[in-house]
Amino acid sequence: MTMQQSCQTCGATFTLGKREVELYASFDQVPISLCFTCLQKHHLSFRNGRNLYSRTCDLTGEKIITNYAPEKPYKVYKRDEWYGDRWSANEFGRDFNFDRTFFEQYKELQLDVPRCALLNINPENSDYCNMCTDNKNCYLVFGGDYNEDSLYCSMNMRNRNLVDSDYSNRNELCYWLMNSHDCYGTRFAFDSSNCSNCAFISNCTGCSDCILCTNLANKTHCIRNEQLSKDAYLEQKEELLGGYAQQQKLFHEHVEQRKKRIVKSHYVLASEHCTGDYITHSKGCENCYLTWDSEDLVNVLLADHQKDSLNCSYVGGAGGGRCFNQVATINGSECSCSFFTSDTYHAEYSEITSQCKYIFGCIGLQHKEYCIFNKQYTRDEFFALRTKIIKHMKKTEEWGNFFPKELSCFAYNESTASEYYPLSKKSALEEGFSWREEKQQVSSATKIIPAEKLPDSIDEIPDDILNWAVICERSGKPFRLVKQELEFYRQMHLPVPHLEPNERFAERMKFMNPFHLHTSKCTKCEKEIQTTYAPQRPEIVYCEECYLKEVY
Question: The whole model's pTM is what?
């Protein structure tokens, strides 16, 4: 059985599939009147992974780095103090008032309960990371877990010596990757896997020593898709890979090369009965994107080791499953309408909780169970009160909906939503989101150098550049290099970048297709296909069968 719905935000008509309807019933929920795009924009407006600010710890008075802007009204504690024993989130417990709505009472709790400066679990020498767990010797890694010696990355898992890369797993000594996995010694690789010592490649698998290539499998010593002898390859490689000017020339050549390539309708690898894009080693996932090692999901954006979940964003971890309308969950199960719950079972309308069970409307709890609005109850008291609150929320039409937009701690333009669904200030405000005016950055460096004045070769970069502020050649924003970064560039013989980190990230995001399926036809066999390549795109789009015959 399917159902027709109309989006309450954009007015678009969309269809709920059979599995989607079944999952709603299993969660005892009625369908949400939001299309996938509007749902994800709403969800991800609650997540600020990349934007960091300096402000004062409200417990110690120390200067701290946090993802909460200094003008925001929340109490923010440095990470060690937030996890320490000098305070307890139960101190802020309160009774539920049935004469008021749930969300207006929850907003008051948000303003009272201290928040952790950065959501950075078990870091080792990785203090400048956020929305992460178990990183070692990492710097400005956002949303990536179990990485080592990595910098300027987003949503990467289990990498070593990785710089300026996103949505890429199990790589080592690589630079500027997007959706690429199990690579070594490779730079500028997109949608590729198991490649080593390659540069400027797209849609390549099992290749080594290839440059400016697309759609190759198990090849070596190729340049511009032409097979060369080893000696000829090494001679041309020496001429091709040089300083910053040459790197940019090859980058733009590869961008044009990509426009003419044959592409598979979707990036679904080693998976069964899945629809969406960027899916690997998964089964039964419908309308899912950036999904790895997961099963039976519907309408999910970014999942890792997740099962039986509906309408979620950024969920996963060992044992994760049975989540509904959930955002940013690590090792969570039976959770719904909550944000950043880690190792938590059965959390509802809660946020920033760790190792809890059976909580409702709670913030900042650790190792707690049977709590409502941060107040402790017995098991029987908890379930009796929970039933009454749900009945009240159904009456006020709050039950089943995620937190309203005004309960987000972040403006739209500083949230993860803006990375996938960019909006102008006017459009964001029209859709009910808030907007933050960017403050001018001021550098305390002893020397300032425009990026275009940097030496072209890494061999000519002096050590004291670590004391300078480099002025981004595109926006004019100053940025600093760190020692670990400079050492990596020298090891890889890479030039120093001319763009600041956020602009480099935005440049890489241009290589990711939008999360929207179009009905089209295979260019070769004319079979109907679902693809994230819009009809006006220049690439030649094949169905999976025709693509495999052509490329492998």
Answer: 0.93
